[in-house]
Write a structure and sequence with these properties.
Layout: H1 3-43, H2 50-63, H3 66-71, H4 88-123, E1 126-128, E2 132-134, H5 136-175
Antiparallel strand pairs: 1-2
Helix pairs in contact: 1-2, 1-5, 2-5, 4-5
Length: about 180
């Protein structure tokens, strides 16, 4: 197995694992809000900390789910009015260039998110509401999610490059 195939396989496992955590966090949000509503209707008081916890769980569901959605290929919304009208050889190259641009942006975001998470940890950053909630777990989750998303974009770059290489070999075979 090549290093590229190992990376693709590993990213698939990581993405699916993070996707499961994201799904579980959505379920946890539903359960927490339902429990809060039931308690509030019975006692007239909210369950302390539910709002703060659902904020963190929302970041888990969004950012840890990014890589799993990218792996699924059909989860992200895309508008390809122009690219779909291009000749297939050219559109594959345009999509590859776009993937490289997305990867560049995600690397920049990852760098910023890791820095923000490290700073939040070192400052013991908290948000005060009903409870003092540390912010670093949410910042770490965002960084992990963006890094995993970048990894899945690398996987899609591998796939797009393979299609272009296969197309080039086909053209060479036809010319001989």
């Amino acid at each position: 197995m090549t290093q590229e195939n190992q990376f693709v396989s590993s990213m698939g496992r990581v993405s699916r694992f993070l996707g499961l955590i994201a799904s579980a966090s959505v379920l946890a949000i539903v359960v927490l809000i339902a429990a809060d509503l039931i308690v509030r209707s019975i006692s007239g008081k909210s369950v302390g900390g539910v709002f703060e916890l659902t904020e963190i769980l929302l970041s888990v569901s969004v950012f840890l789910g990014l890589a799993a959605v990218q792996e699924g290929k059909s989860g992200h919304i895309s508008i390809s009015l122009v690219v779909d009208r291009l000749p297939s050889r050219f559109s594959r190259r345009v999509r590859l260039i776009a993937a490289w641009l997305v990867l560049f942006l995600l690397v920049m975001m990852s760098w910023a998110m890791v820095g923000a998470a490290a700073q939040s940890i070192s400052d013991s950053e908290t948000r005060w509401g009903l409870l003092a909630v540390p912010l670093w777990p949410g910042r770490v989750i965002v960084a992990i999610g963006v890094i995993a998303f970048a990894g899945q974009v690398v996987v899609s770059i591998f796939a797009r490059r393979a299609l272009i290489d296969q197309e080039a070999r086909s053209v060479l075979d036809q010319s001989h």
